[in-house]
Amino acid sequence: MRFTSSFHALVLFLVVALLASCQKDAIDTTGSVAISFTPVINADVPDSYYCSVHVAETYPNTPPLARKYVADFATQIDGTVRVTFDHLNPGDYIFTYYKNRQLVPHSVQVASQKTTTFTF
Fold it and tell me: What global pTM score does this model have?
């Protein structure tokens, strides 16, 4: 009888150990935006060296969610720059950049598990 209870305890332990080690893969529900735009950098406006993405609900009252240095990106023959913002939750955002001294905002949408492309 002692052998049977030890065997059952071992089987129970193995089942619990196997179940504990099995984890469902987390599904990434974030998305990305790839944006092509034509910035005009002005040395008198330090912020003109950056482009940003903001949560639409709170724009312009909160800091940007992400900010990137425009000069880090290669300029295409037509003068456009392409930037990608990854790992954004699905929803509405405002993309901003400068054309000389003017801040230019554009509405962009992020879809789950997709890269959405915009050209401004």
Answer: 0.74
